[in-house]
Specification:
2 domains, single chain, 14% strand, Aspartate Aminotransferase, domain 2, globular, four-stranded antiparallel β-sheet, binds pyridoxal-5'-phosphate
């Protein structure tokens, strides 16, 4: 989706886009300043400032800005030591990039079904399998890529502990979840004020990866970030992202690296939005809360997860219908009205490159969620009047689905 409302498939302009960027004149001014001072490429103060501010915002020791969320995941896996023939376990219900990095490394992908509470990977199944392999002396995966789906954190406590116990690197794919995290403990021991996360997504695993493409919580046009508390890992990510060039004037490279660094122009675009992130999160969470209020308790609709221990960032709001037919009816009617909506991600085990991968937990929950789920307009700038239209169309589709009302072409 682009800000004009044209869908990524280019098929139709939507008057109400799914997820528009939150840009203003200040962002244009930041890019203009970057052009004026000449620091437009992959070095310089804008890039460092963005990395420092991002690390501070999520509470990580280091942040390395890269060209995309996909590049962030690829580099995270490489510095975790993933190579040919290793196993990487990845959430099944996610965007395809969550698994592609493992394949770039030559690793074998094992998918993990969703659980129903948060729609994220089923950590109970995963921990059981790690323990079972340990008991039988079987090889463990090299890494787990845990996705925070649509901005709702995955419950990582038990999983992080199991990964530590079994020597498996936990990588968080927080591409969709910037601004989300875990709520402060109820005992008041956290200094963080209520209503904000006390721990950000991306900071529980050894490495956390974020995306800044055009539809995310914050956009740099295209871009991504790797965060970690381990300065050695951060250094290796930075080194690999810059063609593995050794310091000094000579063109001396000690590895086959990548041209994965984020250009400073993009970093300048991100920096101002980062300063406004709280506002963006608040606005998107308010959109999600309004959908929940409108759909909760309605026959035929199930609202999106919002667990008390989690602080969702509200990136994309979604709702579950009773079945695929009703979901598709609502989708068709929204599109007819010029409103962009999308099904949930297609589970990876249904996609050609990952069809043959084993699925821990079987994949039935991810499949069902994908068939019943619909993502709804969620921009921070979504007008309440437009949201009312979305809600009315969804409710009508549910009410009319059984009465044989035709779907207009
Ligand atoms: C869960 C998830 N992982 C990874 C990515 C890849 O990020 P990028 O598009 O910046 O490469 C995305 C989205 O684009 C995503 O939604």
């Amino acid at each position: 989706m682009n800000p004009t409302g044209r869908s990524v498939d280019g098929s139709r302009a939507s008057s109400v886009p799914l997820s528009a960027p939150d840009l203003c004149d200040l962002d244009a001014e930041a890019v203009r300043r970057c052009v004026a001072d000449g620091w437009v490429s992959t070095a310089g103060p804008h890039l460092t400032a963005f990395e420092d501010a991002f690390a501070a915002a999520v509470g990580a020791r280091s942040a390395v800005a890269v060209a995309s969320g996909t590049a962030a995941l690829h580099l995270a896996l490489l510095v975790a030591g993933v190579g040919r023939g290793d196993e990487v376990w990845v959430s099944d219900l996610t965007f395809v990039a969550s698994a592609n990095g493992a394949r770039y490394c030559g690793a074998d992908v094992v998918l993990v079904d969703s659980e129903r509470v948060t729609w994220n990977l089923d950590t109970a199944v995963l921990c059981e399998e790690l323990d079972r392999r340990a008991r039988h002396g079987r090889r463990q995966p090299k890494a787990v890529v845990a996705v925070h789906l649509l901005g709702h954190p995955a419950p990582l406590g038990m999983l992080a502990e199991a990964c530590r116990r079994h020597g498996v690197t936990l990588i968080e794919d927080a591409a969709e979840a910037l601004g989300g995290g875990w709520t402060p403990p109820a005992d008041g021991s956290s200094p963080v004020t209520a209503g904000r996360p006390c721990r950000s997504v991306g900071t529980i695993g050894e490495l956390g990866c974020f995306s800044f493409n055009g539809n995310k919580m914050l956009t740099t046009g295209g871009g991504g970030m790797v965060v970690t508390d381990d300065p050695e890992l951060a250094g290796r990510v930075r080194h690999l992202a810059t063609q593995a060039k050794l310091p000094g004037l000579a063109y001396d490279h000690d590895l086959v690296g990548f041209n994965y660094r984020m250009p400073a122009l993009n970093a300048a675009l991100g920096l101002g939005q980062l300063a406004r992130l709280d506002r963006t999160v608040e606005a998107r969470r308010a959109v999600a809360d309004r959908y929940d209020a409108a759909f909760s308790g309605r026959a035929g609709l199930t609202t999106q997860p919002d667990e008390a221990w989690a602080y969702r960032c509200g990136w994309l709001s979604a709702v579950l219908f009773e079945d695929r037919d009703r979901r598709d009816l609502a989708l068709a009617r929204l599109r007819e009205a010029g409103i962009e909506a999308r099904p949930l991600w297609t589970p990876l085990h249904h996609l050609a490159p990952y069809r043959d991968c084993p699925v821990l937990g079987g994949g039935a929950v991810a499949t069902e969620l994908a068939e019943r789920g619909l993502c709804l307009p969620s921009s921070a700038s979504l007008a309440e009047a437009d949201q009312h239209r979305v809600v009315a169309i969804v409710r009508d589709a549910v009410a009319g689905a059984g009465s044989g009302q035709p779907i207009a072409a």
